[in-house]
Amino acid sequence: MATSATAIRSTDGQLSAEGLVHRPRIVVIGSGHAGLEACKALSGEDVDVLMVDRNNYHKFQPLLYQVATSGLQTGHICMPVRHIFQQQDNFDFRLATVLGVDLEAQLVHVEEGPPIHYDSLIIGAGASVAYYGVEGAEEHGFPLKNVADAVELRAHVLRCFEEANRNPALIEGGVLNFVIVGGGPTGVEMAGGLRELFDQVLRKDFPGLDLNRVRVILLERADALMLPYKADLQVYTKDALEHIGVDVRLETAVTEVTPTEVRLADGTAILTQTLIWAAGVRANPLADVLSETEGIEQTRGGRLVTDEYLRLPMHPNVFVAGDIAGAADPQGVLYPQVAQVAIQQGIQAAGNAIRAHRGLGPEAFVYNDLGMMATIGRNRAILELPNGTGMKGFVAWCAWVFVHVVKLAGFRNQVAVFFSWVYSYITWDRTPRLIIDVEPETDEIQEPALSVTG
Amino acid sequence: MATSATAIRSTDGQLSAEGLVHRPRIVVIGSGHAGLEACKALSGEDVDVLMVDRNNYHKFQPLLYQVATSGLQTGHICMPVRHIFQQQDNFDFRLATVLGVDLEAQLVHVEEGPPIHYDSLIIGAGASVAYYGVEGAEEHGFPLKNVADAVELRAHVLRCFEEANRNPALIEGGVLNFVIVGGGPTGVEMAGGLRELFDQVLRKDFPGLDLNRVRVILLERADALMLPYKADLQVYTKDALEHIGVDVRLETAVTEVTPTEVRLADGTAILTQTLIWAAGVRANPLADVLSETEGIEQTRGGRLVTDEYLRLPMHPNVFVAGDIAGAADPQGVLYPQVAQVAIQQGIQAAGNAIRAHRGLGPEAFVYNDLGMMATIGRNRAILELPNGTGMKGFVAWCAWVFVHVVKLAGFRNQVAVFFSWVYSYITWDRTPRLIIDVEPETDEIQEPALSVTG
To answer: Which of A52, A61, A346, B56 could form a disulfide with A38 if both were Cys (CB 3.0 to 4.6 A apart)?
Structure first.
């Protein structure tokens, strides 16, 4: 109790060495795929595991667009962290917003309560939205990273329809123009999801509205959608979206966003009150804080540079996994920011942390690429295997549903809730079209207090 | 298009007499039980029905406490209004907050858009919380009227447990004391629901916390709980709550609420950061506006005085139904503010509106009392029939579940969602224990602009 370090441990509820052996504490920042898998991989180990996140739930990010398009309820894609780990004795959770890390003192600084001491740290803080400096995009655009984003976007879209129904003259002003920026998986899935919400559900909800005046416009800066995929799958994606009525515009860059329109690089503008920003991600701002306060090197997209063992250089007890990690394959290419990489890195980081506590050397991360897939809408999806084999259409869609159902089932163990989810998904039963206002969560973390570095 | 009245009708999307017969428009304020049943009763009639509400969904109020105690998801008890009325051709909906009514000009003034013209009006705006002037109650207490209230309370309760888990010293300061004011159905159901959330779910979520230190305290000013019920059912309710660990305190009045404690009339105080205010309701503030701007008489609880036909005196085309209605039975006793009365009054008001348009005289409202019931917790409920027959315990609970399941099914037609709900309810499967911040909805309506009365 004499030094401030022990005092900190005491307030954290961890006993210091008064007759008890000190178990190493592994702190995991983030409840996303990386953090979740890291904690699971530490099950049964002789360590204390403490996950820190500002939300008390894990969200199944790949289906977040379904919440935004009224397809699923928030509860369908969120699971309380404590529920997931109810059977894991060495697990505890801290609801807190991380402000920064003092690597030398081995402390995680949080907004709520005293700093948290760690013996090993796994940083899986994920990514936030990148606006690339486009004027007005952050202020007026709708991102889609958090549950609150999805609920807010859902409410906004439904309000646009209520507005248009009240006063059809507003349609001229673009109230029913929905513009999505970014032709990657999020943008493509949102475009398809919106089109189906409009054509299959809202068409019945608003019999007095001319639904043919609703426009879904997908803007992509490059000359193709779904860039990492093979060319024929890119073309298929564009054709499939156009088939269901999405206006796809390639080689179209946004220069400015205002409350009433989106301005394009060619000098034209699209009237809209709904600009969905799916154009890119940037590492969680925690990476910037670590760069500023601890001199940690960042790479493309703000990601934290790691060695092949997923460790921060010079800090062998600090691991980075998932979207915030700037780990590179043996050819020096950064791993893609996808769920599979996060899952595998989370497991590897946990394994290397345990090996270190056992006095063993670390193992290099080897990515087992399982391929990639995305859905374009009901019955249409694309899939590409690591060997270059591509699949598209209904078979790919069945594969997509199967994989996502199995993955979701992995963290859901209530059979009835699970089947309700499957039912909702399969039938496109969209009762959650509720306008409930939610305070936006923030991906911004506050500047660390001076004491963090001092 | 010449007069301002026609202009208003045009912007409302209603055609004026250019070759078309003018169909009378019945405007219904409120999407609660009264408004919902009124609109349903108008199905097939040769009128235009327009429901106005600031939420786009009907909520099943009797199960709101289940959302607050993580038992059900919001989507389980909410149904979009447009979904309910998808098959009703003469129905339309306006998402708007009502500011006031100009009874002479037959206009409903709303915050969003131009005023809405009506030929007949049915006011079913419901009730808001009554704080009876208790200092700090509105500021620091948690009401339970809206979906946002329930989501906010749920997040707060879960945060209290997270706080206590982080720093058990806070338990001394009352972070795990949950105080409920009001021993009516809402207070009793909340007390039982919280106790079960704590003992059956959070006990497993927080293995490091001493759950025996969690206190649920129910305060009632009178000398019995569940006042309108027979004495033996009141006693049973108290015994049943105490059996599951609720600290019931009768003849206990609250004088002040602060962020950290509740002060009582006897000079003592209870340390708590969670004061749930279930002590009473008052008519929606729209009633006060009608009193101030239109001179309409109010009775107990601010309710609008009506004649036996549910009409505002002197305004035969304006009907009032549900919690905001101050209708009295032939003995002059006000009807209770319960769902059954709202449902029956909504139907009666709609019927009388139609009769008036057909040139028929109105029919007096006769309440068909079906009895009352309330649940105390799993397997325990009370029930009293109009003839004075009482029931309690497991049989009453089965009856309660049956009635609520049937009623909820009445507005839910998705079999799988419905069974998921039944499953969740029966198994006490509480996965929706999510902390998602919601902006509180407001029951306050703004002061009408001067032009309303001028």
So the answer is: A346
Task: Please report residues of B whose CB lies closer than 8 A to that of A206.
Answer: 82
Which of A334, A411, A407, A418 shows the shortest CA–CA distance to A373? A407
> Measured between alpha carbons, how far is B321 from B327 in angstroms, rounded to an integer?
8
Q: How far apart are the first and last CA of chain A?
A: 22
Which residue do the tokens 């609660």 mark? Answer: B32
Query: Which residue among the candidates A45, A152, A189, A261 is catalytic per the annotation?
Result: A189
Quickly list DSSP for B49-83: EEEEESSSEEE-GGGHHHHHTTSS-HHHHEEEHHH
pLDDT digits (tens, 9 = 90+) for A173-205: 999 999 999 999 999 999 999 998 999 889 999
Below-70 pLDDT ranges, chain B: 1-21, 408-454
Give me the residues paired with residue B373 across strands: B383
Query: SS3 for A387?
Result: coil
A87 inside 8 A of chain B by CB = no
DSSP label of A72: S
SS3 state of residue B230: coil
Chain A CB contacts of B161 below 8 Å: none
DSSP letters for B12-63: TT---SSSS----EEEEE-SSHHHHHHHHHTTTSSSEEEEEESSSEEE-GGG
Among residues 241-270 of chain B, which lie with CB inside 8 Å of chain A? none
**Beta bridge partner(s), residue A27:** A50, A121
Find the DSSP H helices in A295-427: 339-357, 394-411, 415-427
Residue with tokens 């269901």: A244
Instruction: Count other C-beta atoms under 10 Å from residue B418's C-beta.
Output: 16
Burial class (CB in 10 A: 0-12, 13-18, 19+), A223: exposed
Q: Is the ipTM of this complex over 0.90?
A: no
In this structure, the strands spanning B325-326 and B304-305 are: parallel
Q: How confident is the model at residue A212, as a pLDDT?
A: 93
User: What is the average pLDDT across A231-259?
Assistant: 96
CB pair distance less than 8 Å for A166 and B112: yes
Q: In the prediction, which pLDDT does B404 show?
A: 80
- Cβ distance A56 to B433 less than 8 Å, yes or no, reads yes
Q: Which residue in chain A has the smallest CA separation from B54?
A: A435
B196 in active site? no
State how far the Cα of B334 lies from the Cα of A218, in Å rounded to an integer: 58
Distance of CA A26 to the CA centre of its chain: 23
Instruction: Judge contact between A272 and A263, C-beta under 8 A.
Output: no
Q: What is the DSSP string of A98-116?
A: EEEEETTTTEEEESSSS-E
Q: Nearest 5°: phi and psi at B78? A: -120, 140
Average pLDDT, chain A: 87
pLDDT tens digits, residue range A18-47?
445 679 999 999 999 999 999 999 999 999
**Closest by Cα among B160, B196, B126 to B430:** B196
Radius of gyration of chain B (CA): 23
pTM greater than 0.95 (yes/no): no
